[in-house]
Specification:
The chain contains three helices and seven strands. It is α+β, with helices and mostly antiparallel strands. Strands 1, 2, 3, 4, 5, 6 and 7 form a seven-stranded antiparallel beta sheet that branches. Strand 2 and strand 3 form a beta hairpin. It starts with 16 loop residues before the first strand and ends with a helix.
Length: 138
């Protein structure tokens, strides 16, 4: 571990976790805000031991009519709280991107010691697998 890194860098999330990340970069770096991202895959470099995550960014722009068959949309009030979100969120599966598991790309929401904020339930995990299979991405 790099001496300036927070302890969470050595504790990566798991697939289907929801984490706080600075992604996508839509503003200048000093104005970026953390947003929920869905972890699709976690990778570890065998040489360096560093981790990276394939993530899909979350957005409050649900676009239910256009995207319900393509993306993971968490909109049921009880599900929002259950998976650790603050509001209804769509995870854009078109945007899965690999990010290093570092403080440059991930951060902690206020009051938390780790970027992990929750995880998909079994129903959403099955929905994710079905949508990725339909995309030919599995």
């Amino acid at each position: 571990m790099h001496p300036n890194n927070p302890p969470w860098v050595d504790r990566p999330p798991a697939a289907y976790d929801i984490v706080a990340a600075y992604f996508p970069e839509t503003k200048p770096k000093d104005e970026l805000r953390l947003r929920p991202c869905l972890v699709a895959k976690v990778l570890k470099n065998d040489v360096t031991g560093a981790f990276a995550c394939d993530v899909a960014f979350g957005t409050k722009h649900l676009k239910i009519t256009q995207r319900f068959h393509l993306d993971i949309i968490v909109q049921n009030t009880s599900d929002i709280e259950l998976v650790g979100l603050k509001m209804a969120t769509r995870f854009d599966l078109d945007s899965i991107t690999r990010l290093p598991w570092t403080p440059e790309f991930f951060g902690c929401w206020a009051g938390r010691a780790h970027p992990r904020i929750g995880a998909l339930t079994e129903v959403y995990i099955r929905d994710y697998a079905f949508k990725m299979l339909a995309r030919g991405s599995v």
